[in-house]
Amino acid sequence: MMKDYRYTLLSLAIMTACASQYANADLKTQCRLGIPHFSGQIEQGEPETLPVYIEADKATITELKEAVYSGSVLIKQGNRTINTQQFTVSQNPQNNRFATLNNSFKYQDNYIRATGKKASIDLAGRKADLSNVDYQLVDKQGRGSAETILLRDQVRRLKNATYTACLPSDNAWQIDASEMTQYIDKEYAEMWHARLKVGDVPIFYTPYLQIPLGDRRRTGLLMPNYSHSTKTGFTFHIPFYLNIAPNMDATITPTYYSRRGWQISPEFRYLTQLGQGTIAGEYMKKDRYEDWADKNQSRHLFYWKHNASFLSDWRLSLDYTKVSDKQYLSHFDSSYGDSTDGYVTQNVKFSYHQPNYNLSIAGKKFQIFDTKNGAKPYRALPQIEFNYYKNNIWKNADFSLFSQLTHFDNDSKEMPTAWRLHIEPKLNLPLSNNYGSVNFETKLYATQYWQKAGKEQKDKIKSHVTRVLPQFKVNFQTVLESDTQLISDFIQTLEPQIQYLYRPYKNQYDIGTTQYHSLGLGYDSMLRQQDYFSLFSDRRYSGLDRIASANQITIGATTRFMKETTGQEYFNLSLGQIYYLSNSRIDDSSPNSNTDRSTSWALETNWRFNKNWNLNGSYQYDTRLDETSLANLALQYKPQNDKVVQFNYRYASQHYIDQNLRSNQYGQDIKQLGVVLGWNINDNLSIMTSHYQDLALDKYVESQLGLTYNTCCWKATSYISRHLIPTPNGERDDPTDVYYDNSIGVNFELRFGSGYNTGVSKMLKKGLIPYTEEFDIN
Hints:
elongated, lipopolysaccharide transport protein A fold, six-stranded antiparallel beta barrel, mainly beta, single chain
């Protein structure tokens, strides 16, 4: 029943969204139409210097001390206008003039419009006292009533007042206060003894409250969020925003989990002369979660990102994230990390830049969560780099030099440590004419290691290792263009590319510990890259410790279809493959390929067959595995930024995954079929839904539905989801063992005349597999 219901809900959501193709004016425009606007030009100057204009059916003047105007009376001074049936103008001994109204009136200036029963206005100043008033802010959402209003230049003081940002036809919520002060120029209001009412029902009281009257940031409580899941139970968090200064702010968010306890999450943002950045943290003293063994251990996350430029040539960058345990990001939803990454980084870099060179010193460390293969990550501290580059040093030849000195250390005392000095000069000679371009490049990899064996290490390592590898590469590219006969008004290009790469073999068995040679690991070697674009790269590993020999030819081509009149690209197709002329090896233990076979060949395409439709796909076939290694296909319909439907399919073979994860424990292929929909149905209602099905396991990975309802003065978002979560002990012995978390949440937000977004983009980021834009045709 659950499965049938889920698909029915998904189908209904898609049909509902697609049925609504047209909407009226956007919500912001509709809301702005419902508020008064000041007409005419705003007059500047002191009120006492501005003349007073009076129109009336009848006037009675007594010895120039008092005048009574009656009938249809209009009084105007500067930006102030009053309409009434009768009022009296009097003058005191100091020649100050006052207008007194004892019957109904309409008052308006460039800040407020009001109707009331009684008023006194100082015509020689900026003061006015109004009684029994209904008011509406000018050019801003905000209205209410008050027993009295004292207008003082940029300040409005109200007694026994109400306030709401809803339009006159909407009484969804209001705030009642015994006293309210509105600061017009600063765009905020202070309230004392405030009571929030939804409809006519009081739901919240506070002795003091600040609310915004515009788009400026203000200190105060933000709207709470409520949710419930089978993993954490009931969750409630209410953020407190602190506007410290124009260049600094902070948010402190206490969160209560009914099955875990309290968590506190502060975030501090800053922009100073020393740079800009964010410092954040998450802390839980004790976690009562039933599947968490260390009940007395605190669980926390620390995050700091900082970027600075100073003295014109110096740069500083810091990206530091650390968690208390390897399951933290699986158990908590955090804005500062994702369990799907499998690690967090801790990097700092200090650099100096000049037109032809740069110098930097850095420290790098990874905190990884999957340690099944027994390897622990190395930290690089320090890592000193010097780069030099000079163009046209000789007959259009370009020269560059990359050099790096790094110290590698490890938390495991059994792992070796090392210093590595790497020097890499490169000379590049490009030649081109109307037929194409040829690029000749030669490079030298010169590396020296000073290694120290780990404690009780069985396999001894050499204390000194020297590796020198020359490299030669030649690359030919051309662009063939013609007016295609297949499609009228289109130009087709064919861009073939061929490359030869040679690098001799050097046995690198003595670099690092022999324990991980079969895994392709060195001090900083990372996973292989095997997509189309990497086919033309120099190396198969991103690190410097494993540089495989190369004697290979790479062939590839791209064809494009572009509009003849605009040059806009509508279709491209790329295909490439490497042919090995001899084995590619890093040591004598095992070759990486066979001489009579090529590596993976790759195909990629983008096709915009309509202004709203895109098709993106890629395919890789590994001839060594004799099977498809990777494939994905995505079809997207996106008529507007807040309306998108995407169907996608992703595939990765088990052998390819095990090979790149340096493990054989994943257990099965990945065959994932998904659909994502984010749609602004009309000005009030937005929907997001997604579903990902793993065809290999015949189980779904994630299914979620979110609805956002928008009005001019409030927004409500609700969502339900069910997605895969890690096994209780963090391990996955059997691929068929799956665990799900069911979640439901509600977020209610009061609007104070700003933030009219539909909520589609925010909802699309939710979930285990967030929506990504995969199309690059412009």
